[in-house]
Amino acid sequence: MTFRSTDRKEARGRAMIVVTGGAGFIGSAVVWRLNREGIDDIVVVDNLGATEKWKNLVNCTYREYLHKDCFIAMVREDRAPFPATAIVHMGACSSTTERNADYLMENNYRYTKILAQWAADRDIPFIYASSAASYGNGDQGFNDDDKLITTLKPTNMYGYSKHLFDCWMLSQNLERTIVGLKFFNVFGPNEYHKGDMRSVVHKAFCQIRREGAVRLFKSYRGDYGDGGQMRDFIYVKDCAEVIWWFLENRRATGIFNVGTGTARTWNDLAAAVFDAMGRKRQIDYSDMPESVRPHYQYFTEAAMDKLRKAGYDKPFYSLEEAVEEYVRRYLSAIDPYLER
User: Fold this and answer.
1) Looking at 113, 194, 203, 218, which residue is catalytic?
2) For domain 8-187+233-262+301-317, which architecture applies?
3) Which of 24, 125, 326, 335 could form a disulfide with 86 if both were Cys (CB 3.0 to 4.6 A apart)?
């Protein structure tokens, strides 16, 4: 991405779209999508540290970069050096296996509360990333009706941190001015830095190139075969498209699922990766860790009626279309260090 440096005087006079987590997976896709509309008045907020996330910004254009701690300090002291026209808050710890509950409470819950309240007080449109992890084991379904959201029971601390903010937002009646997006199983370009949190598409690609086979978990339920567990897989470009639609349609507010509405099996996903690579299918099934089995989701599928009724009518990539593009256009050209 191309960085356009801007001195402080110029920045103060320009209205900016703030994208937190802007160097991350979904956040960088949002910056890319804004650039496609000719928008580069963007402030990227992130914590690059010693990670490879900076590579996600190389082909994008934006005006300013701020560390997340500097940005929230500015917000708390009401001294942001630019007027914001919208905030797309994708910044958070996205690890579903993170065990430091205090860290998740500060990073995912309290940070979001401070930023959301600041935006609401100034009538700044605010779009944030919730998560399908808030649905827990799925026993209550995947309905994004506001009246049902507070009854959900997440099964990991990551999902709980997202759920807490959803509940707080609703308790403050901010659903009339704020958009929360419950992302399901997202995959696609710019997830390369995510380590073990990379999608199975990325992991399968690396396994096939290295070993010629893909490893999936065995099933421990009679109604699902090995690899027959199902997920609602959604391409990151579709997520960015949904966010762009909400930026354009600011009367649409509340909490919405972001999936395709069609669950597919892990076997389907693996087959799509093999086909996109032009390789013979070979799937091996391994034991699921005992610590995972009690909480494992065998089925997720986003209810999409609410988003469609709000007016979003664009089609989503099919699993096969998205995997083919991701594999052939992106993964086949990635750096060797990504094969982990």
Assistant:
1) 194
2) 3-Layer(aba) Sandwich (3.40)
3) 125
Q: Please report which residue ranges of the chain form alpha helices under DSSP H.
A: 8-12, 25-36, 68-76, 101-104, 111-121, 146-149, 157-171, 200-211, 236-248, 266-277, 305-310, 319-325
- pLDDT tens figures, 256-296: 999 999 999 999 999 999 999 999 999 999 999 998 888 88
What is the separation, in whole angstroms, between the first and last Cα of the chain? Answer: 25
Domain ranges of the chain: 8-187+233-262+301-317, 192-230+264-297+323-332
The residues near 248 (Cβ < 8 Å, ≥ 6 apart) are none
Strand partners, 87: 18, 126
Q: Which residue has the tokens 């999608």?
A: 199
Tell me the residue type at 103: Y
Residue 69's alpha-carbon distances to 43, 119, 317, in angstroms, are: 14, 17, 36
List the catalytic residue out of 62, 111, 158, 235: 158
Active site residue 65: no
pLDDT digits (tens, 9 = 90+) for 130-180: 999 999 888 899 999 988 888 999 988 899 999 999 999 999 998 888 999
In the annotation, is 194 catalytic?
yes
Q: Specify the pTM.
A: 0.92
Q: Give DSSP secondary structure letters for 103-149.
A: HHIIIIIIHHHHHHHHHHHTT--EEEEEEGGGGTTSTT-----HHHH
Tokens at residue 233, please? 């897989």
